[in-house]
Amino acid sequence: MVRIRNLYFGYSKRVPLFQDLSLTLERGRIYGLLGKNGAGKSTLLKNIVGLAFPVAGSCEVLGQPAARRLPSVLADLFFLPEEVDVPTVTAARFVEHTAGFYPKFDHEALARYLSEFEVPAHAVLSALSFGQQKKFVIAFALAANTSLLVMDEPTNGLDIPSKVQFRKIVASALSDERCVIISTHQVRDLESLIDTVLVLHGQRIVLNADLGELGERLRFGSVPEADDTALYAERTALGAQVIRPNHGGVPERVDLELLFNALVSEAPALAHYLTQNQPAHESVL
Amino acid sequence: MDFKNNEAIYLQIAGYVSELILRGKWPPDFKIPSVRELAADLQVNPNTVMRTYELLQSQEVLYNKRGIGFFVAPAAAEQVLAQRRERFLTQELPDVFATMRLLGIGLPEVQRRYEEFNQTQPISAS
């Protein structure tokens, strides 16, 4: 679906954002892209959708270089930017003018999503509140039914009930044919929705792993005192939050915040453990 | 549904499905919600629910009719009970033992309280 090899990119030559970055994304998965502020999450997404071009290396979508922006590729991908910009037309008019670019557009699904989000179909889009505009574009993005759906911080600006609706709709919209990438720094919003976690750090993808597999390999918990079995430890007032190897124990729920902190602090023990005996699923460390 | 403890989400969902079967809400041969329906309802990834259903199928709690969906197995309740017993004995009981040791509580005291419990708390349907 998406194949990035040895990507170099920077808006200025002196400040490279990505160096030798490689990443493969498959159909049938919802990827959560995590990274610190300024790590380049949005820029990576822009490379994938053909809005930024590699300085070196390759970025292919559906077997074609993303930067070529072939109509056949653009018809099968949708990019939802963090800040949406809607024209001064009604929702119905917008759909009439725009849905035609997406051959698999599902009008019934759109009606269902808009009613779940409680967005009026006859209102002028630019007159809606920011949250309502965003929900309209999310509904449109999902209804476009493209093989690749890229969403940059989609839950920003959504109220609590809308976040719930968002998770329900995305969960119901995934199919074996679709690949969904969601970038976020609000891990808690999405931790049960994503199945694969991507961590962007230090100009590269440092983790691309299935959450189920991580839960079989790692244990997360609080202990009175971290000992040398810990792959990573974070001191708290009452002891430590630790990540330990899970040797055939009960599969655990991955604590994404702790895992993220461990990866961006470059805990060598964790990195070493994750790279050895790597399961079939690709992980670049 | 709230996912709070450390157990993988697919196992927590399996526990929730098992509970419905034990309580008779999902009787034998009942067609359970599709992967997509349950995923949307619980706001979780469909692959997670698929994993739950595959696990329960391997434990002979559910069966799959190709192209139709998942159904509750005729002997599902017995299977669930067997799983729950195994889980209590291998996972929950060691935690209880650890706490007993930490607090210096011996088996005789536990036995006495268990007998008391049986006398004061009648067996309920659930």
Automatic annotation (TrEMBL), chain A:
Pfam families: ABC_tran
Protein's name in the database: ABC transporter ATP-binding protein
Domain of life: Bacteria
This protein's record includes keyword Transport: yes
Molecular function, one GO term: ATP binding
Alphabetic keyword roster: ATP-binding, Nucleotide-binding, Transport
Domain ABC transporter: 2-227
PANTHER family membership: ABC TRANSPORTER ATP-BINDING PROTEIN ALBC-RELATED (PTHR42939:SF1)
InterPro entries (alphabetical): AAA+_ATPase, ABC_transporter-like_ATP-bd, ABC_Transporter_VariousFunc, P-loop_NTPase
Signal peptide (UniProt feature, chain positions): none
Keyword Transmembrane helix: no
Automatic annotation (TrEMBL), chain B:
Statement: the UniProt record of this protein carries the keyword Ligase: no
Keyword Transcription regulation tagged: yes
Xref: SUPFAM superfamilies: Winged helix' DNA-binding domain
InterPro entries in the cross-refs: Tscrpt_reg_HTH_GntR, WH-like_DNA-bd_sf, WH_DNA-bd_sf
Pfam families membership: GntR
PROSITE patterns associated with the record: HTH_GNTR
Superkingdom: Bacteria
Domain HTH gntR-type: 7-75
Listed CDD domains: WHTH_GntR
Keywords per UniProt: DNA-binding, Transcription, Transcription regulation
PANTHER family: GNTR-FAMILY TRANSCRIPTIONAL REGULATOR, HTH-TYPE TRANSCRIPTIONAL REPRESSOR YTRA
Protein name per Swiss-Prot or TrEMBL: GntR family transcriptional regulator
Natural source organism: Hymenobacter frigidus
